[in-house]
Design brief:
CATH architecture of one domain: 2-Layer Sandwich
Shape: elongated
Strand order of the largest sheet: 2-1-5-4-3
Amino acid sequence: MKAGERKHLWRGKLHQKRYSLIRNFNVLIVLLTVLLLINLFLGISSMISFRDHNEKQIEKILGAYRQKQEERLEFVRHYVEWSAVHEPLLRDLMKHTGAGKEVQDLLVLRSRVRDMKNAYGAGVMFFAYLEGEEKFYHLSEVKIPYEDYLELRKRAPQKARKEGQKMAWQRIRLGQDRKSFLFYGVSYRGVYVCGLVDAEKLRGNLDDIITGRKGYYRLLDEEGREFLRVDGSGGSLFPLFYRNYTLQADPGGMPYQVQVHADVYSAAAEQEIRQSLILLLLFVVLFVAARYIYVTNRSVLRPLENFQIALKNVSAEDSILHMESPPLRELEPADQQLKNLVSQLQKMRISVYEEELERKKFEITFLQHQIRPHFYLNCLATIDSMAQLGEIEELRKMVLFTSQYIRYLFQVDSNLVRLSYELTHIEAYLDIQNLRMEENFEVEVKAAPEAMEACIPPLFLISFVENSVKHASVSAGEKLKISIHCRREKERLVIDIADSGQGFPPEFLREQEGELPLAEGKGGEPLVAERKEEPPVAKRQEEGAAIGEKREEGSRVKEAVLKRTHIGIANSRKRLALLYGRSYRLVLLNLSAPAHGAVVHVEIPFEQSSEKAVAFD
């Protein structure tokens, strides 16, 4: 294909992709715009419906309120006027008929008023004042403080003399808190009867109106002074959602004015607005995102596709420097970078290899620090017991041995340590066990001088010694014997660990059979289970077949072994595989009668101690 044809084909493909992308975004924006308009239409319709419903409800409540209050107040007026003019019992009270007759007449009057309570409702009180007798009576239950009652009793004669037969509702205030009441009184031939209505009891069904957080309703007297106000709660915060309603005062009916400032759209309309705003915000965000993607496609993606197609069309014999499609300014360094591609790939391979080494090092560190905390707790418990029993000398030894043991553990942060340091650590461990368990172990350590300078993995031999101490058992009266022999055979370090216990359980040996990784010597030659020169401990007759390494495709260690009882041996074997690959040998076997016990035979490459091996104080 010619260069011109390739360029034309590439531009056609890019044009199709760009057109498809823009078209999809345009369709999405149009759909979202339609959805926004529909949501706005439905939201406005819902708000209008809410408003109409709430307005009708408020008007209905106000109408019922006016009717109810006019009926109550009309009854109070009628009773006050009738009692002042026609009540014979009040006339009898003025005739000095005696205390007994006075009490009887008052009881009858109060009983009548109590029977009419359903008509005048709560918060209404009736009083009577006899001018000639200078007596003030309450004709109903008194629901005001005694101080307010005394003030009313003092003011009633003044109103009777001053107002005479003037009949009109008035607002009075009583008490220190100047609480408001509606007052209606009539005086006729020395009898003054008045009715008192608590302003708080004039609320009626106005509490059914949802006024909103910025709404309220209030009551005003004939002079426009507010004597009761109740603020609302809930509802909307938008002032535009509120409307005012007024019930005008009527001297012949309801003698006060009612003003209501209420939310007619309710919180549901506010929720509709929030929903519309969220949808509008989503529309804006999508529009900005579409614009950003469009610019990114035009300024970045399209040039990158151009550069990619140009690279594909470069023939094997062409040079990268002679590409027909020139790159952008941002892609100009790519020409030089492509020349270094091979060297960079090589560096990447080296980096991957180094990361693999680091991973193995991390696994080794994890395994060597997989220490059981209960050993330290047991040591501390033993020290506490010795201190309580007063065994000072044993306590001193226990603290010394424990400090040596723990110091070694905390200082181990290397892959290799000297064999001499590991053996010293083992001696400290056995000393601790002798003091803690009150058991005596016979330990035989034989190591050639050159072997003592060899490097081994830290905390490696202690796993096998600890296994013997924990699991090996001897007959009563016998001591457990543990032998450790170390020597150098050419370029390999050979270590044999044996005990005089009952040996490895047969099921353990069967589980381990076939699971040891293949061990190879130098040059790739496999190391077999038998050797020409047997170690000193292995010269005894062997009962079980040696569990040696078997050649397989690669090394594998089953994780199930780690969950078994001999987790220390499994960890040690895995560390050997990570450190030496297939250049190690590990043999586990039992001795046959008359000898008995378990034997661990280890062969690893001999490494002279150097800066790689950690030193201890």
